[in-house]
């Protein structure tokens, strides 16, 4: 229960960075909720299929039974639906700054994450090189964005965590897991010192520690999924 008669239920899966994103938002806002774990490979629940009939995927937030889908939309909804809860506002109050935050939030998923995944999952050396090149550009752009938006303070949100901290912070565990799995390092002290320090700072927060998945557990999960996919393709 979120309090005040508001019921929140999150349909998710522990390893999903997009689910972690919603859990981070709920955590930083100080909201309690029922955490419902979905079996995405063994059989999705009727509740999930009914709540997200278009994409049929997690996360889905049920607020008093009404579903909200897509992680960034859910985070924005949480911030707007619970403006007076114990946690800070995640999105800036200034309309222009709010638009900028949403722009970079989309960039994180559409450019940074997409190119990083291409580098990790590519099937040819040419695709790997292209993915790494695009990732380097995306990291450079995010480094510049952090410098401008944070204004020298610890987080994108300034002195406290904001929307972009939650959006990018949800990827931290998988970024660390990818380094162990593929030898790919997204942020480093030489190429992106501000983001590198930010990632360590964010991961050290109590709310982040409570939400972000264990890196070794993610590595084992990824290896298991890769083995299952390889077995399925050989049949």
TrEMBL record:
Residues 94-225 form the GST C-terminal domain. One of its GO terms (molecular function) is glutathione transferase activity. The keyword Protein biosynthesis does not apply. Its main location: cytoplasm. One of its GO terms (cellular component) is cytosol. Pfam families: GST_C_2 (PF13410), GST_N (PF02798). It is found in: Cytoplasm, Cytosol. PROSITE patterns: GST_CTER, GST_NTER. This is Glutathione S-transferase. It comes from Digitaria exilis.
């Amino acid at each position: 229960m979120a309090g005040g008669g508001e019921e929140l239920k999150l349909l998710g899966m522990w390893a999903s960075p997009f689910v972690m994103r919603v859990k981070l938002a709920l955590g930083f806002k100080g909201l309690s909720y029922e955490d419902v774990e979905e079996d995405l490979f063994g059989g999705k629940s009727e509740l999930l299929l009914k709540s997200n009939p278009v994409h049929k995927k997690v996360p889905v937030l049920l607020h008093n039974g009404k579903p909200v889908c897509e992680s960034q939309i859910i985070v924005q909804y949480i911030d707007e639906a619970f403006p007076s809860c114990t946690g800070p506002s995640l999105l800036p109050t200034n309309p222009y700054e709010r638009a900028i935050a949403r722009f970079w939030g989309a960039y994180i998923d559409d450019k940074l994450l997409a190119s990083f995944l291409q580098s990790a999952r590519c099937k040819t050396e040419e695709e790997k090189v292209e993915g790494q090149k695009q990732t380097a550009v995306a990291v450079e752009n995010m480094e510049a964005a952090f410098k401008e938006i944070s204004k020298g303070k610890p987080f994108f949100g300034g002195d406290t965590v904001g929307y972009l901290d939650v959006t990018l912070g949800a990827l931290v565990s998988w970024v660390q897991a990818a380094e162990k799995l593929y030898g790919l390092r997204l942020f480093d002290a030489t190429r992106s010192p501000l983001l590198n320090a930010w990632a360590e700072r964010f991961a050290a927060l109590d709310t982040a520690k409570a939400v972000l998945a264990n890196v070794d557990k993610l590595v084992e999960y990824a290896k298991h999924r890769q083995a299952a996919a390889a077995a399925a393709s050989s049949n």
